[in-house]
DNA sequence: CATGACACCTGTAGCCACTCCAGGTGCAAG
DNA sequence: CTTGCACCTGGAGTGGCTACAGGTGTCATG
């Protein structure tokens, strides 16, 4: 059994964030020591690590919760997990596409700027009438 | 002179967002009609459009404000604008790189999953001990 | 037994950039 | 006179934390 500090170290989730997850009902309330300190089991820490990995993959907390709910190991869960992961992949792809457009636009702007003309082409373009 | 609805239409910034920008001091308080309705000049609308373009390029509002502050047309502003734009481009690039890593990881996970084995490889990997 | 350095506790507020809502006012057309 | 629209204000909610302030518990050292 571990305190919140150890749980944080072992899961990679910060102390504040663990408490936030508890507040928002994402993880169950852990046991408490006599002094009122939170006391985490190995399973609790596993759950936190699971959520951390989901977050690292960009899943929103709601998805993390859904995926966590699928870990009972029933037959249909694989299809559901795959669906969640694929839709996340789509979302990530969409974001990448969007950011690439932005990057191209920024590159063009800054390249124009290297002319170092009197009036700044970046500002001119942002100010343009249409 | 235009009401807030027209200002929104012409700038692409929503009514609520315009009011939010005003609340947060990003744009100056506009004139008011006798009835207390906000009344926007062409210049006001230009400012909103400028901010909209900055946001579309992913600049945070603080950058938008800085860029807006550079539009007096003094000589040094071009270098400053370029600096802001380049650092924004870096930030966008970093985000893209990060998202591409995530996408690769998600792709690998979902591909493994097509095996449709008994235990879901996605969940297994998220649950793994390290 | 006192002291100091920690780890932990609660509750609250702040971040970003909006978005939405309830409940009210002003004004013109039918 | 009523209907409908555009507008008003003030406040709360979103996601996912993060950062306090001010208190308590635990342990080693002097």
Descriptive account of the structure:
Two copies of one chain form a homodimer. The first copy, chain A, has 130 residues and is mainly alpha-helical. Helices cover 65% and strands 3% of the residues of chain A. Chain A has helices at residues 4-11, 15-23, 42-56, 61-69, 77-113, 121-127, and strands at residues 31-32, 38-39. The first copy, chain A, has a two-stranded antiparallel sheet with strand order 1-2. In chain A, a hairpin with a 5-residue loop joins strand 1 (31-32) and strand 2. In chain A, helix 1 (4-11) packs across helix 3. In chain A, 29% of the residues are buried. The mean pLDDT of chain A is 89. Chains A and B meet through helix 3, helix 5 and helix 6 of A and helix 3, helix 5 and helix 6 of B. Chain A binds a DNA duplex (30 and 30 nucleotides) through helix 2.
Question: What is the quaternary state of this protein?
Answer: homodimer
Strand content of chain A: under 5%
Radius of gyration of chain A: 23 Å
Give the low-pLDDT segments of chain A: none
Order of helices and strands of chain A: HHEEHHHH
- Spatial arrangement of strands, main beta sheet of chain A: 1-2
- Count the helices of chain A. How many? 6
Tell me which protein chains meet in the greatest interface and how many residues each side has.
A-B, 48 and 48 residues
Distance between the termini of chain A: 63 Å
Secondary-structure-derived class of chain A: mainly alpha
Helix fraction of chain A by DSSP (H/I, runs of at least 4): 55-70%
Number of strands of chain A: 2
Average pLDDT level of chain A: 89
- The backbone outline of chain A, from C-alpha atoms, is elongated
Main sheet properties of chain A: 2 strands, antiparallel
